[in-house]
Structure to design on (210 residues):
C-alpha cells in the first residue's frame, strides 16, 4: 500500500534512475571528447540528480511510515468497533436470558421433578401392596382347601350349609341320629361330628387372621 502511495505522489521516482544512468553515459562520452566545460556541467546535473534521489528516498520512507501507522490505526479502530459490537450483543443476550428468571425456572423444575418422583414411588408401593395382598389371599385359599381336604370335608357343601357362629352340640347330635336311622347310601362320606366342625371353625378363623 505504501509503494502505491509513493508512485502516485512521486511519478518521477521510477524515471529518475534511468535518467541517472543516461547522464553518466553522457558524462563519459563528453570526457572522452575532451570538452571539460560540458563535462563539468553534466557532472553538476548528476550531483543534483543524486541529491534529488536521496531526498526522494527519504520522503518515500516517511510516507511508508505514515501509511503503516494509518493502517495500524485503522486496524485498531476496526478492533475497537468489533469489541463495541460484541459488547452490545452480549449485553442484549444477558438481558434476554435474565439469570434470575432462569434460576427460578430451574428451581421450579427441580421441585416438580421431586414431586413426580414421590408420586411414582407411592403408586409403585400401592401396586406392590395390592399384588402382595392378592397373593396372600390366593395362598390363604390354597391352604384352606388343603386343610379341608386333609380332614375329608367338601368345601362347597360345608361352607354353604354351615351356619354363622358356633354350632349347638344338641342340634348336631340330633342331625347325626337322624342320619344314622336313615338308610345309608353307598359311597357317601359320613357327616363330621361336632368336634370336627368345631375344629374346622377354629382353623378357618385362624386362616382368616393371616
Amino acid at each position: 500500500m505504501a509503494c502505491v502511495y509513493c508512485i502516485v505522489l512521486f511519478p518521477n521516482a521510477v524515471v529518475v534512475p534511468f535518467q541517472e544512468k543516461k547522464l553518466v553515459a553522457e558524462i563519459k562520452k563528453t570526457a572522452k571528447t575532451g570538452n571539460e566545460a560540458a563535462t563539468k556541467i553534466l557532472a553538476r546535473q548528476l550531483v543534483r540528480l543524486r541529491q534529488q534521489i536521496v531526498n526522494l528516498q527519504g520522503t518515500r520512507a516517511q510516507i511508508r511510515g505514515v501509511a503503516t501507522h494509518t493502517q495500524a490505526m485503522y486496524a485498531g479502530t476496526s478492533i475497537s468497533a468489533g469489541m463495541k459490537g460484541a459488547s452490545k450483543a452480549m449485553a442484549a443476550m444477558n438481558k434476554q436470558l435474565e439469570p434470575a428468571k432462569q434460576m427460578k425456572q430451574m428451581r421450579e423444575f427441580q421441585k416438580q421433578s421431586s414431586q413426580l418422583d414421590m408420586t411414582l414411588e407411592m403408586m409403585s408401593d400401592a401396586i406392590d401392596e395390592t399384588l402382595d395382598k392378592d397373593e396372600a389371599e390366593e395362598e390363604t385359599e390354597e391352604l384352606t382347601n388343603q386343610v379341608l381336604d386333609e380332614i375329608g370335608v367338601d368345601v362347597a357343601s360345608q361352607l354353604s350349609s354351615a351356619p354363622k357362629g358356633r354350632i349347638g352340640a344338641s342340634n348336631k347330635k340330633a342331625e347325626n341320629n337322624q342320619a344314622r336311622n336313615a338308610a345309608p347310601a353307598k359311597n357317601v362320606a359320613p357327616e363330621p361330628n361336632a368336634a370336627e366342625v368345631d375344629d374346622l371353625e377354629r382353623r378357618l378363623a385362624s386362616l382368616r387372621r393371616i
Observations:
- The two ends are 102 Å apart (CA to CA).
- The helical segments are 2-9, 16-33, 36-97, 99-150, 155-161, 169-181, 194-208.
- Confidence is low (pLDDT under 50) at residues 1-10, 165-170, 183-187.
